[in-house]
Amino acid sequence: MAPPKELELSRRDVMIAAAATAAAASAPVAAGAQTATAASRAPTMAAVAMTVNGQAKRLDVDTRTTLLDVLRERLEMTGTKKGCDHGQCGACTVIVDGRRMNSCLSLAVMHEGSEITTIEGFGSPDNLHPMQAAFVKHDGYQCGYCTPGQICSAVSVLEEIKAGIPSHVSADLTAAFEPTADEIRERMSGNICRCGAYSNIVDAMTEVAGRRA
User: Fold this and answer.
1) What is the pLDDT of residues 29-79, one digit of tens each?
2) By CB distance 3.0 to 4.6 Å, which of 4, 24, 67, 91 could disulfide with 103?
3) 198-208 vs 130-137: helix axis angle to the nearest 10?
4) In three state form, how does the secondary structure of 140-195 look?
5) Is the predicted pLDDT of residue 19 greater than 90, yes or no?
6) What is the side-by-side strand order in the sheet with 45-52?
7) DSSP label at 62?
């Protein structure tokens, strides 16, 4: 017996109905997923207080923001340079709680209460820090881009030697460490100078350390 006229459905009609049903069913899920994605992309803010070059700073930061970006973009201390942004060149070196650090590899929210020194905290054109003056005297910079990080590291290196912290080339761990060229070169190896002013930097550091350059 032939089916009633009103019950006859073409294959095309069935496909259209199925697609419409699927779209209706998935619409709330898709909308929910979009809302969840947007929520997950929203920045999480946190308050952080730190002392930078002797001045107290308090600011709200995206928890994903590096210390380098906070220094340069929020506090406008652009002396600290962004080089490789992967902790390989040392251009972003600053001193945090007495230890040198690649600021591109550290999140700002990790430094609640920290004491941070950037190149701006060392001296001024009219009153240079001894390490800055030595870099000028020995031409320890050329293009100057890496110089802020070099000077932060150089000051810390001499403090590390004075504090008796060994390096990879320290031959006798029981003896007092000396700021020899080998010690300086090894300890400064994380700071890359593309101009190749390394020998002049060693001379500058040696002079500040009180040895003959």
Assistant:
1) 666 666 667 767 789 999 999 999 999 999 999 999 999 999 999 999 999
2) 67
3) 140
4) CCCCCCCHHHHHHHHHHHHHHHHCCCCCCCCCCCCCCCCCCHHHHHHHCCCCCCCC
5) no
6) 55-62, 45-52, 115-117, 93-96, 99-102
7) E
Is the separation of the CB atoms in 73 and 173 below 8 Å? no
- How many residues are recorded in the chain? 213
Does the pTM of the predicted model rise above 0.85?
no
pLDDT for the residue numbered 120: 97
Contact status, residue 43 vs residue 62, Cβ threshold 8 Å: yes
Angstrom distance (rounded) from CA 61 to CA 49: 10
Instruction: Pick the closest to residue 108 from 73, 151, 83 (CA basis).
Output: 73
Amino acid at the residue 187: R
